Amino acid sequence: MLDKKYDYYEVGETWTSRGRTITETDLVMFSAYSGDWYPLHTDKEYAEKNTPYQQRIAHGMLVLSVAMGLQIMEPGVVAAFYGIEHLRFTKPTFIHDTIHVELEVTDLLDKENGTGVVTINQKVVKQTNEIVSNGVLKILVNKEM
Predict the structure, then answer these.
(1) Which CATH class is domain 6-142?
(2) How many beta carbons lie within 10 A of that of residue 28, not counting itself?
(3) 65-110 pLDDT, tens per residue?
(4) Measured CA distances, 99 to 3, 26, 30, 38, 40 (Å)
(5) How distant is the alpha carbon of residue 62 from its chain centre?
(6) Superkingdom, according to UniProt (predicted)?
(7) Handedness of CA 139, 32, 100, 94 (dihedral sign)
(8) Structural domain boundaries of the chain?
(9) DSSP letters along 78-99, please?
């Protein structure tokens, strides 16, 4: 969705990404990269015996990172990631779940400096149609020059 200049966005427009399956390798690599080896994500025995999910779940920040990667971000269009508000992880994402992203533009703010902020409701949805994460993205987008 982030493939056009600020001037071409309209409040209410929507976009849906392709899917991506979360793998055990994703959890291990994310743990190695982030240093987050919390046993809910990395210890099968611990997760089975000591959590309500009875299995490992993906790190919330891994899910958010994959969701960002599923979005189209065109160089020269996106000036910067401006922020995220009201982020919630509402359901677990398990190994072998396939997630996709659903976006809706909810607001446009002209920064009057050659950019504008595009506000987007982001839902991360898994194959069961359950929303696993939602939040409000703010993306700084270049204007047409």
Answers:
(1) alpha beta
(2) 13
(3) 999 999 999 999 999 999 999 999 999 999 999 999 999 999 999 9
(4) 21, 13, 17, 22, 20
(5) 9
(6) Bacteria
(7) negative
(8) 6-142
(9) EEEEEEEEEEEE-S--BTT-EE
